[in-house]
Amino acid sequence: MIAFTLNNFLIYFIVAWGANIALNFLYIMKRYIPEFKNLDYPLDFNLSYKGNRLMGDSINIIGLLFCLFISVGLYFLVKSSILAFIPLIVYLGGALGSFIKRRFGKKSGEFMPLVDHGDYIVLLGLVFVLCGYISIWFALMAILITYVLHPVACFIAFKLKLRENPY
User: Is residue 166 part of a domain?
Assistant: First the structure.
């Protein structure tokens, strides 16, 4: 189990938030570089269930490949398979959150409390606690900090015109 030290917590937190921020930059690139949007394809292949897409457009093959690339790079950089799984789990957390939102009838860009701003860190915490890598307190602290800081970061990005909405 990873000891709950400030150093370990910051590494875990920075890798998780870094992966999420990197995925958000892919979204920004899609908005401002038209050629990049042509490479984008939704991970759900535009499939629907009961009139709703399985996931939103932001869950795409480029994002999955990007997170796999980051994971492999982290593994070779720090020789830690635990850290290397973080970007992939962050991506899957976002995909799961998107899937849940669609089951509640939410469309892309609509806000859903508790799912938006934290889906990725909740799944990461759950997986790492169940695997015995971190304690429940470690995970809860990361989730709490994310639910406080993530909305602030989104609002700042909105004011900088990097996001279409403040949430």
Answer: no
Domain residue limits at 89: 6-159
Full pLDDT tens readout for the chain, 167 residues: 888 888 889 899 899 999 999 988 888 888 788 887 777 889 999 888 888 899 988 899 999 999 999 999 999 998 888 899 999 999 999 999 999 999 998 887 889 998 998 999 999 999 999 999 999 999 999 999 999 999 999 999 999 988 888 88
Q: Which residues have a Cβ under 8 Å from the Cβ of 133 and sit 6 or more positions away?
A: 1, 2, 82
Number of domain units in the chain: 1
Q: What is the pTM of this model?
A: 0.90
Q: CA-CA distance, 19 to 153, in Å (whole number)?
A: 14
Whether residue 117 lies inside any domain: the answer is: yes
